[in-house]
Amino acid sequence: MTFTRMDESTQEQWLEIGARTAENQGRVADRMLMLLRSLADITDGFGTDQLTHCLQTATLAEEAGADDEVVFASLMHDVGKAISVPNHPAIAAEMIRPYVRRDVYEMIRVHQDFQGRHYYAHFGGDPEAREKHREALSADQFDLAAHFADDWDQVAFDPERPTLPLEHFEPLVRRITSSARM
């Protein structure tokens, strides 16, 4: 028996819900992978679809020796575009937040403004928009976000570039999302 109102719930009911939630933690990876696969249908004028872009970004991070959380975040960084392009960094950052450390979360949360150095001027925007994040981020967080945007993200639109397939990254996604940090 379950409740119809939270203010009438019992500890036993919440213990049951907690147990069922833990049993189903694997669906997080399934849903993240599903959203990543859906990016294959989104090109929006780029030379690659958004799945390929995410795979290239993660491949570049892995090739550069980035740690697993950074590689995972590099793979997931544009997954929010499956829902909404204008706020995709916030969507992706919140999706990965329970599974990565703070600097990796921040890297994804601010990545569009950091990448903006390479294209915002084409829209009349400020190519130095990343600077508005300098005070809010630690120096290490700022440097990681800049490294991600400048060295991996903005160069990952090459249809000819060798790119690891999603299947290569699936075990990483499953391992990192197997339990949330609290």
Structural commentary:
The chain has about 180 residues and is an all-alpha fold. The protein has one domain (about 10-175): Hypothetical protein af1432, CATH 1.10.3210. Helices cover about 55% and strands about 0% of the residues. The protein has nine helices and no strands. The chain is globular. The two termini are about 30 Å apart. The model has no long low-confidence stretch (mean pLDDT about 95).
Layout of strands and helices, then pairs:
Elements: H1 11-23, H2 26-38, H3 50-63, H4 68-76, H5 88-96, H6 102-109, H7 111-115, H8 139-153, H9 166-176
What can be said about this structure in brief?
The protein has 182 residues and is mostly helical. 53% of the residues lie in helices and 0% in strands.
Helix and strand succession?
Answer: HHHHHHHHH
The biggest sheet, with number of strands, parallel, antiparallel or mixed sense and barrel status, is: none
Number of helices: 9
Gyration radius, rounded: 18 Å
Low-pLDDT parts are none
First-to-last CA distance? 28 Å
What CATH architecture would you give?
A: Orthogonal Bundle
Shape designation? globular
Counting helices, strands and paired strands, the structural category is mainly alpha
Number of domains: 1
CATH topology: Hypothetical protein af1432
CATH class: Mainly Alpha
| Strand coverage percent | under 5%
CATH superfamily caption: Hypothetical protein af1432
Mean pLDDT: 96
Quantity of strands, as a count: 0
Helix content range: 40-55%
